[in-house]
Inverse folding.
C-alpha cells in the first residue's frame, strides 16, 4: 500500500499543489468571490486589498476571481488536449509497433514530417486560417502533440515486442489481444504515465503561449496565458498583475512535474513486480 | 626497508582489507554494505595469484584495491595494502597516481570498451610510460612493437597505427596486455581477460598472456570465475565467496586436494552422472536439409542442416558465436521460416511459419531461454507465468490450476511460497527454474534449451543441469540443448551436432562424436576447452601446433 | 576525409532537402486545404459575395491547389515571397531587415547560452550528486516549467521598471550604433538565454556523464592520469560530438523561443512579424515566415547530425 510518510517531501508538495489547482478549477463558481466578467472597480489595476486579494485587472475585474475561473479554462483545455494527443498517439504508436510493415512506415514518416517543424510555428500556420474557438484549439493542440506520444509509445512497444517473454507468448500461440494487453501494455505503463504528466505540462505551456500571443482563448473568457496578455501593459508602470497568472502557470507546471517524476521513480525502480 | 623487501621477495602484502560501498535502494535510506570482509593475501615478485569466485565474491574489488581504486562509490575502509614495502593507502591521491600505470597495471575484461575509440592503439599503449617518464617515445614504441610480437599479434610493426574498432576482440585483448606490460610494471591485475572471448580464441590469448608473464617476470593477480582457466596460469589460487576468504593454497593443492567443501564443489562442478542413451529407431523430430537466412535471403545463417532428435533423449548443438546454433532453434520453432528443407515432428511436417501451426504442435514444442530475466513478464507473478500454459492448452482454472502450479513448483524443487512472487524477487537460478516449470506445464515432447546455463554461476548452472536430467527421467521429455560450452555437453548429451559457420560439421552419438579421429574444427574446439589439469595449456597448444603443421 | 563520411553527410543533406520540400507542401496544404474557405476566414461571416469573389480571384483560389503550390514554390525559390495582403507590401523586402534583427538577437543569446550551459554542465558532472549538482538540476527542472513570458516579464519588472537599467521595449532601427543596439537587446537576449539554458545544460550534463562512465575513462584513470588529463585527453574527444549535437538541437529550440520573446519586448523581428500576420490572417506572410522558420530549424538539426557523423571515429577511420 501507499505510505504517505515514504513519499519524498518534494513530491508531496507537488501532489498537494496539483490537487489544489484541480479543486480550484472544479469548484470555481463556489470559490470565486466575484463573477468572471464582473467589473468591480472604477480604476483599472486596483491595488491588493481585503476586498480584492490580488487587486483588479486592466478593466477593473477582480483578479483572484479571474484567476480561479482561468484555472478552470486552462485545465479544461489542457486536459482535453492531452487526452486527445495521448489516446491518438498511443493507439497509433502501439498498433504501428505490433503490425509493422507499410502501416508503420507511412505513419512514422508522417510523424517525422510533422515533427520537423516546431510545434508553435505549425500551430501558428494552421491557426491563421482556422476559426478561433475552443474545439479548433483543442484539436490543433492535441493532434500536433500526439506526434511525440506516438514516437514514445512506438519506441516502448517496439522494445517490449522483441523481449523474450513476448516471443515466449507468441510461441505458445497467444493471439494479438493477449500480447498487446497482457504482455506489452503492463510493461509500457510506467514510461507512458510519466509521459502523460510531461504532455500535460506541455499542453498548459503551449495553450498559455498561444493565448498570450492572442491566438488561444478569446475574450471575454481568459485562461492564464490570456490574462498575462490582458495585463501586460501594466508591467511598465510597475503593476505586477501580469506576473500573477504567469507565476500560476509556472507553479502548476512545476507541481505536475514533481508528481510525474515521483511516479516515474516509483514505477521504474521496481523493475516490474509490486507497485 | 628496501633491503627487507629484496630479501623476502615480497611484492604485495594486503592485510585485513575491508571494502565497503553505499547503495541507494529506491524509496529507502542509503545503506552501507561490506563487499570485502578482512581479506589478507601476499604475493611474491614474479608470481601469479589466481583470485576465483562467483559473481559478488569481491574478486575484482580486491584486485583493484592494489591500485587504490574503487569503482562507483566503493571505498577501502580498513586494512593495509603494502606494495613494494609501503602502505599505498597512506599515499593519498597523488601516491595512487604515481603507482598506477607504473608499478601496477590493469587488463580489463572487455578491451573493446577499455580502449578509447578516438585514439590510435599505439598512442594508448605508450601513454603510461610517457606519462611517468619511464621511457622516451621512441623507446616505448620499440618496446610496444616487441610486445606485440611476443603476443603473436599480426603485423606487429603497424598494428599500433590502427584504431580500436579496426581490430578484433581477441587481438584487442592482447594489445591491452601489451599496454599493461609496456610500462614494465611490478604487478599486473588481469580482470577476467578471456571471459568475453570465444573458446578457440581464449586459448590463444591465454597462452600469449602466460608466455608474456613468464618472460617479463612480472607478478600478476589473475581474476576469473573459471577454475580451469586460472589453473593454467597461476602459482597459487585464492577462493573467495561473498567477500570472504574460503581457501588459499598452491594451484595443485586447490584443484587436486581441495580442503573446503565449497572449493570441492567448484572443482567437481562438471562431474554429472549421465549414461548415454543409444538413439532409437524412429526420430521424434527431424530437421531435414534446412537452409535459412536473415535479411530476405542475403545472409545465409543455416546451410543444409539435418539432425534427428529421439524421444526422451538430448541432442546437444555446439558451436561458437555466429555458428548458427540459435538460428537452428528459431527455424525449428517457426520464428524464422526456413528457405528450404523441412521440420518433421512425430511423422508429420510442421508448418514453416509459426502462424501455420496448430495449437497442439505449439504445445509439444517448448523453449527455455538464456536470459531468464527477460524471458518472464516482470508484471506477472510466478503463478500466472506457470499457470498460463495450463489455462491456454488445457483450460485449467482456479483451484485445479493452482494445484498443478504447486506440483510443478515442487518438481523444480521450489517451495509453495513462490506462487505469488514476481520475477524480480527471485534469484538467477530460481528464475531459470520457473522458466523450466513454465515449459513443463505444457507437457511437451521436446524442450529447446537455448544456452540456459550460460548466464549463471557454475554451481547454480550445475544445479539446473541436474534438474533438467532428473526431469527428463520423470517426464520422458527430449531436449535440444544449444550451447557453446563443451563441458556442459559432455555432462548431459546423448548425441551431439557440432556447428561451424551455419553447417553441421560433425554429428552422431556422443561417444562417436567425442572419439577420434576428428575433423579439423571439432579438434580445434575440443582441444580449446580448458581442463582442470596443470600443464593442459602447453599440451593443448603443442597438439594444435602439430596439427596445423601437419595440414 | 574518407568516403563513408562524405556519403553519409551527402545522404543527410539530401534527406534534409527532401524534408524541406515535404514541409513546404505541408505548410502550403495547412493554409489552403483545411476546412473552410481562406477568403471567408479572412473577411469573416459578414463579407459580401462580391468581395469574397474578388479576394478569391486575388489569391488565385480559382486555380487547382497543386498549380498554386508550384507557383508559390517557384516564387520562393527565386526569392519572390509574394505580397502581404494586409499591407500590399513585398514580403521579401519586409522580411530582410527583420530576419537580420532576429538573427542578431539569437546570435547574442547563443553566444551567452552555449559557454554558460557547457560550464554549468561540467560543474554539475564534476560535483555529481553533491549539492551543487542538485541545485543546478533543480533550477533547471524548474525553469523548463516556466513559460517564456514569465521569464521575460520578470526581467522587465526587475531590470526595466524597478531598476531602470535596460529598456522594457527593445526598439532598434537601421544604422543604430552597436553599443546602443546591444543595450536594447540585453533583456530579450537574457530571456532567450534562460529559456534554452536549462535544456542545454541538462543534455550537456547527460552527454558528459555518459562518456565519463565509459570503461576507457577508467583505463585512463588506472594509468595514473590526473583528473584534468583524463578529461582533456580521453573524455573530451569523445564528448565533443554529443555536445555539438546538444547545442545545435537547442539552438533549434531557440527558434521557437524567439517568437514569444519578440512579442514580449516588441522587438521588430521575424517572430513578431509572424504573430502579427497570423492575427490578421495574412496567409502569404504566414506561409513565407513559417517556411523560413522551418528551414532554419531543419538546417540546425542537419548540422547536429552531421557533427555527430564527422566526430565518430568509426566512420572517420573505416576498417
Amino acid at each position: 500500500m501507499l505510505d504517505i510518510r515514504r513519499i519524498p517531501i518534494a513530491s508531496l508538495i507537488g501532489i498537494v499543489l496539483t490537487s489544489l489547482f484541480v479543486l480550484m478549477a472544479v469548484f470555481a463558481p463556489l470559490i470565486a468571490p466575484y463573477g468572471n466578467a464582473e467589473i468591480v472597480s472604477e480604476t483599472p489595476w486596483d491595488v491588493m486589498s481585503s476586498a480584492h486579494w490580488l487587486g483588479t485587472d486592466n478593466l477593473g475585474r477582480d483578479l483572484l476571481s479571474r484567476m480561479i475561473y482561468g484555472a478552470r479554462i486552462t485545465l479544461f483545455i489542457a486536459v482535453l488536449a492531452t487526452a486527445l494527443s495521448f489516446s491518438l498517439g498511443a493507439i497509433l504508436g502501439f498498433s504501428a509497433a505490433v503490425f509493422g510493415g507499410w502501416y508503420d512506415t507511412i505513419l512514422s514518416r508522417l510523424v517525422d514530417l510533422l515533427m520537423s517543424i516546431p510545434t508553435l510555428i505549425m500551430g501558428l500556420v494552421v491557426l491563421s486560417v482556422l476559426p478561433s474557438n475552443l474545439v479548433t484549439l483543442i484539436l490543433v493542440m492535441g493532434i500536433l502533440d500526439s506526434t511525440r506520444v506516438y514516437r514514445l509509445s512506438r519506441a516502448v512497444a517496439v522494445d517490449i515486442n522483441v523481449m523474450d517473454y513476448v516471443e515466449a507468448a507468441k510461441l505458445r500461440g497467444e493471439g494479438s489481444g493477449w500480447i498487446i494487453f497482457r504482455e506489452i501494455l503492463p510493461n509500457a505503463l510506467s514510461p507512458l504515465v510519466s509521459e502523460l504528466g510531461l504532455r500535460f505540462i506541455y499542453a498548459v505551456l503551449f495553450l498559455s503561449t498561444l493565448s498570450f500571443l492572442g491566438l488561444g482563448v478569446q475574450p471575454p473568457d481568459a485562461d492564464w496565458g490570456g490574462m498575462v496578455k490582458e495585463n501586460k501593459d501594466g508591467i511598465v508602470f510597475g503593476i505586477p498583475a501580469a506576473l500573477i497568472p504567469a507565476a500560476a502557470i509556472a507553479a502548476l507546471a512545476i507541481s505536475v512535474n514533481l508528481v510525474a517524476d515521483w511516479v516515474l521513480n516509483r514505477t521504474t525502480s521496481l523493475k516490474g513486480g509490486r507497485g | 626497508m628496501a633491503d627487507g623487501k629484496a630479501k623476502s621477495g615480497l611484492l604485495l602484502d594486503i592485510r585485513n582489507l575491508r571494502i565497503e560501498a553505499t547503495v541507494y535502494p529506491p524509496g529507502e535510506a542509503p545503506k552501507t554494505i561490506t563487499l570485502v570482509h578482512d581479506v589478507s593475501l601476499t604475493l611474491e615478485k614474479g608470481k601469479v595469484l589466481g583470485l576465483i569466485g562467483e559473481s559478488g565474491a569481491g574478486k575484482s574489488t580486491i584486485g583493484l584495491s592494489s591500485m587504490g581504486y574503487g569503482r562507483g562509490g566503493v571505498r577501502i575502509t580498513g586494512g593495509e595494502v603494502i606494495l613494494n614495502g609501503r602502505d599505498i593507502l597512506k599515499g593519498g591521491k597523488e601516491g595512487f597516481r604515481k603507482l598506477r600505470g607504473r608499478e601496477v597495471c590493469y587488463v580489463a575484461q572487455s578491451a573493446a570498451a577499455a580502449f578509447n575509440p578516438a585514439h590510435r592503439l599505439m598512442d594508448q599503449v605508450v601513454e603510461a610510460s610517457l606519462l611517468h617518464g619511464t621511457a622516451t617515445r621512441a623507446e616505448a614504441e620499440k618496446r610496444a612493437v616487441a610486445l606485440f610480437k611476443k603476443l603473436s599479434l599480426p603485423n606487429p610493426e603497424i598494428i599500433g597505427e590502427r584504431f580500436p574498432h579496426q581490430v578484433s576482440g581477441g587481438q584487442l585483448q592482447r594489445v591491452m596486455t601489451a599496454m599493461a606490460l609496456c610500462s614494465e610494471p611490478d604487478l599486473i591485475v588481469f580482470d577476467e581477460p578471456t571471459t568475453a572471448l570465444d573458446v578457440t580464441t581464449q586459448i590463444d590469448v591465454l597462452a600469449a598472456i602466460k608466455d608474456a608473464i613468464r618472460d617479463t617476470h612480472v607478478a600478476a593477480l589473475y581474476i576469473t570465475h573459471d577454475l580451469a582457466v586460472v589453473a593454467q596460469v597461476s602459482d597459487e589460487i585464492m577462493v573467495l565467496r561473498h567477500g570472504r576468504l574460503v581457501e588459499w593454497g598452491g594451484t595443485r593443492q586447490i584443484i587436486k586436494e581441495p580442503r573446503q567443501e565449497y572449493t570441492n564443489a567448484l572443482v567437481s562442478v562438471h562431474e554429472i552422472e549421465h549414461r548415454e542413451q543409444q538413439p532409437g529407431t524412429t526420430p521424434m523430430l527431424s530437421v531435414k536439409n534446412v537452409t535459412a537466412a536473415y535479411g530476405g535471403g542475403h545472409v545465409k545463417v543455416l546451410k543444409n542442416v539435418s539432425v534427428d532428435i529421439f524421444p526422451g533423449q538430448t541432442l546437444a548443438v555446439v558451436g561458437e558465436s555466429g555458428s548458427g546454433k540459435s538460428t537452428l532453434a528459431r527455424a525449428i520453432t517457426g520464428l524464422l521460416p526456413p528457405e528450404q528443407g523441412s521440420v518433421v515432428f512425430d511423422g508429420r511436417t510442421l508448418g514453416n511459419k509459426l502462424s501455420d501451426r496448430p495449437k497442439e504442435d505449439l504445445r509439444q514444442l517448448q523453449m527455455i531461454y538464456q536470459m531468464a530475466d527477460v524471458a518472464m513478464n516482470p508484471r506477472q507473478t510466478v503463478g500466472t507465468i506457470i499457470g498460463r500454459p495450463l489455462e491456454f492448452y488445457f483450460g485449467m482454472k482456479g483451484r485445479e490450476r493452482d494445484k498443478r502450479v504447486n506440483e510443478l513448483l515442487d518438481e523444480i524443487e521450489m517451495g509453495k511460497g513462490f506462487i505469488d512472487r514476481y520475477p524480480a524477487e527471485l534469484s538467477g537460478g530460481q528464475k531459470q527454474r520457473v522458466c523450466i516449470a513454465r515449459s513443463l506445464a505444457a507437457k511437451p515432447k521436446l524442450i529447446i534449451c537455448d544456452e540456459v546455463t550460460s548466464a549463471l554461476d557454475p554451481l547454480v548452472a550445475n544445479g539446473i543441469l541436474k534438474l533438467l536430467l532428473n526431469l527428463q527421467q520423470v517426464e520422458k521429455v527430449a531436449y535440444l540443448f544449444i550451447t557453446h560450452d563443451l563441458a556442459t555437453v559432455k555432462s548431459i548429451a546423448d548425441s551431439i551436432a557440432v556447428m561451424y559457420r551455419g553447417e553441421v560439421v560433425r554429428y552422431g552419438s556422443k561417444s562417436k562424436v567425442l572419439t577420434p579421429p576428428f575433423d579439423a574444427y571439432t579438434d580445434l574446439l575440443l582441444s580449446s576447452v580448458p581442463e582442470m589439469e596443470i600443464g593442459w595449456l602447453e599440451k593443448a597448444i603443442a597438439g594444435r601446433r602439430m596439427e596445423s603443421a601437419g595440414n | 576525409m574518407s568516403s563513408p563520411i562524405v556519403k553519409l553527410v551527402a545522404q543527410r543533406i539530401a534527406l534534409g532537402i527532401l524534408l524541406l520540400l515535404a514541409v513546404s507542401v505541408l505548410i502550403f496544404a495547412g493554409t489552403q486545404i483545411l476546412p473552410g474557405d481562406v477568403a471567408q476566414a479572412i473577411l469573416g461571416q459578414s463579407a459580401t459575395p462580391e468581395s469574397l469573389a474578388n479576394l478569391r480571384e486575388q489569391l488565385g483560389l480559382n486555380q487547382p491547389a497543386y498549380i498554386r503550390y508550384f507557383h508559390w514554390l517557384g516564387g520562393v525559390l527565386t526569392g519572390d515571397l509574394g505580397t502581404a495582403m494586409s499591407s500590399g507590401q513585398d514580403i521579401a523586402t519586409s522580411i530582410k531587415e527583420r530576419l537580420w534583427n532576429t538573427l542578431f538577437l539569437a546570435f547574442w543569446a547563443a553566444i551567452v547560452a552555449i559557454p554558460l550551459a557547457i560550464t554549468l554542465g561540467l560543474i554539475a558532472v564534476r560535483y555529481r550528486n553533491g549539492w551543487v549538482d542538485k541545485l543546478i538540476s533543480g533550477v533547471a527542472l524548474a525553469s523548463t516549467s516556466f513559460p517564456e513570458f514569465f521569464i521575460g516579464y520578470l526581467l522587465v519588472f526587475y531590470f526595466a521598471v524597478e531598476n531602470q537599467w535596460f529598456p522594457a521595449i527593445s526598439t532598434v532601427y537601421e544604422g543604430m550604433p552597436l553599443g546602443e543596439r546591444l543595450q536594447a537587446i540585453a533583456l530579450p537576449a537574457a530571456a532567450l538565454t534562460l529559456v534554452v539554458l536549462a535544456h542545454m545544460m541538462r543534455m550537456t550534463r547527460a552527454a558528459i556523464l555518459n562518456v565519463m562512465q565509459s570503461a576507457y575513462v577508467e583505463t585512463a584513470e588506472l594509468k595514473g592520469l590526473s583528473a584534468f588529463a583524463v578529461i582533456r585527453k580521453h573524455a573530451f574527444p569523445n564528448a565533443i560530438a554529443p555536445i555539438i549535437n546538444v547545442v545545435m538541437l537547442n539552438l533549434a529550440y531557440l527558434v521557437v523561443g524567439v517568437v514569444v520573446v519578440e512579442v514580449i519586448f516588441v522587438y521588430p523581428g521575424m517572430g513578431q512579424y509572424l504573430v502579427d500576420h497570423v492575427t490578421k490572417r495574412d496567409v502569404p506572410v504566414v506561409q513565407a515566415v513559417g517556411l523560413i522558420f522551418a528551414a532554419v530549424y531543419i538546417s540546425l538539426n542537419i548540422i547536429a547530425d552531421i557533427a555527430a557523423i564527422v566526430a565518430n571515429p568509426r566512420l572517420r577511420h573505416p576498417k
Q: What stands out?
A: Residues 269-275 of chain A have pLDDT under 50 and may be disordered. Chain A touches chain B at residues 6, 163-165, 167-168, 170-174, 182-183, 186-187, 265-266, 269-274 (CB under 8 Å). The radius of gyration of chain A is 22 Å. Chain A has ten helices and no strands.
